[in-house]
Every structure is written in C-alpha cells, then in structure tokens.
Design goal:
Strand content: 5-15%
Structural class: alpha+beta
Distance between the termini: 27 Å
Radius of gyration: 16 Å
Helix content: 40-55%
Strand order of the largest sheet: 1-5-6-2
Number of helices: 6
Largest sheet: 4 strands, mixed
Order of helices and strands: EHEEEEEHHHHH
Length: about 240
C-alpha cells in the first residue's frame, strides 16, 4: 500500500537477533491529503503493471515510512503527547554493514534499533520479497518495526519478547486498518486473503516456548494479533 499509489500486506517471519533492538522480523531463507495507496501485485507475485522495479520498491519504502509516521503523529497528538519520528530507515546489503549497539545486523532481516532509533533492513531480501509477495509486505514490515519504535517512546516493557512482538503485530494491524478506513490507503480484492496466508506462513516453530528469547508467536497468535488491530484499531493492542 503505497500512500498515494498502491500496496499490499504480507508479514514477515520472525527471526531473533540479539540486538539492542526492541524487535525484528525476517523471512525464511528460501525465498495525508493524497490519493489512497493500493496494492499492485497478484496473488502469484507477478505484477500486472510491471511495477516491480527497484524504483517502485524504493518509492514504496518511502511511502510506508511516511504513512506510519503520519499515523503515529496523529495518534500522539490526539493523546496530547509530543511525537518524534524515527531517525531514519537504512537499507544494507552486507552482513554487519549496519550495526546496532555495536552488533552487526545479519542478512534476511529487518529490525528496529533502539540504540540509534532507526529501522534497518536487508535490501536484497526485502526487494526479493517485494517482487514475490507485493507492496503489502513493505507496509507490514515498516508498520511492525515502527511499532517497536512507538513501544520505546511510550516506555512499554514486557516480561517476554513474544509479548512485545505480538503487540507490534497488533499495532501494525491498527495502523494499516485505521489508515485504510481514513482513505489514505486502499486494499484491493484479495489483499486481506493474501495477508492472512502470509501471516499463517510465518511464526515460531511448533513447540516454541512462550518464554523463549526472541519468540514472536505462533502463526495463529500473530494472525490473531494483527487482525485484532486491523479490525478494532489500537483498543486491543494495550498501548495505553
């Protein structure tokens, strides 16, 4: 879902990166006053408009960041709070090229780094997912990581990693759902079904303990959290 153009949503597979980051997402190795944004790709990952170029990808990343920033700025204003956007979104190509708190980020990954207040992502992995899955992937990716930045700004702390991750999924769902209802984003037919399939494909391995470091939640848990936010806004996300 680009902002005044088009997009779609697809989740990311959780990967644990021991950083000074509040959370991260990664995929499996094998793989505003503007017009509303809408998704561009088909369920097969083939773009009917040919909009799967590096230029389109870069534009979608910018749109996703702008939409998330505008959404949270409005939420903070409504609550009488001062909002500060994240410092930057950083793409990288090599393992360790970008560091968070002195530790290099790995490939096939995206993460929010609280130490530098930035979001960083493996651009080759993200672009491959963009072409295979669609724009929605980028909006979910930025939405989930931006949620971690909001958790930090609100001083939200949880006993287990999984609690922060499921809350971030809920917050990502709220940002997408609320922005769509406002008319700044547009979901085309089939986009929600595709998102649901994507969320079901990610998640921790069966049997992953709730208290495990870096746990993100099962596919069912993540789907439920995202859908709660998408349908009911921030109410079920417990961000107050």
């Amino acid at each position: 879902m680009p902002v005044p153009r088009r997009t779609r949503l697809l989740p990311l597979v959780p990967v644990v990166v021991a950083l000074i980051a509040l959370g991260c997402v990664s995929a499996p190795d094998e793989r505003t006053g503007q017009a509303p944004v809408a998704p561009r790709t088909t369920a097969t990952g083939e773009d009917p408009d040919g909009t799967d170029t590096p230029e389109e990808f870069k534009a979608d990343v910018g749109d996703a960041e702008r939409v998330a920033e505008a959404y949270w700025k409005a939420q903070f204003k409504a609550s009488g709070l001062k909002f500060e956007p994240i410092a930057q979104v950083i793409p990288y190509e090599r393992e360790g090229e970008v560091a968070c708190g002195g530790q290099g980020l790995g490939l096939n990954n995206a993460a929010y780094c609280s130490a530098g207040d930035f979001i960083a992502y493996d651009i080759n992995w993200a672009f491959a997912a963009f072409r295979q899955i669609g724009d929605a992937f980028i909006f979910y990716l930025l939405g989930h990581e931006y949620a971690h930045a909001i958790q930090r700004r609100l001083g939200i702390q949880k006993e287990f990693t999984i609690e922060l991750e499921l809350q971030a999924d809920c917050m990502a769902g709220a940002y997408i759902g609320d922005t769509e209802r406002k008319g700044s984003l547009r979901l085309d037919n089939g986009d929600l079904e595709e998102l649901a399939r994507g969320l079901e494909a990610v998640g921790d391995d069966p049997g992953q303990p709730w208290f495990a470091e870096g746990a993100h939640g099962s596919a069912k848990q993540r789907t439920k959290s995202f859908n709660n936010g998408y349908r009911r806004s921030l109410d079920p996300c417990d961000v107050s």
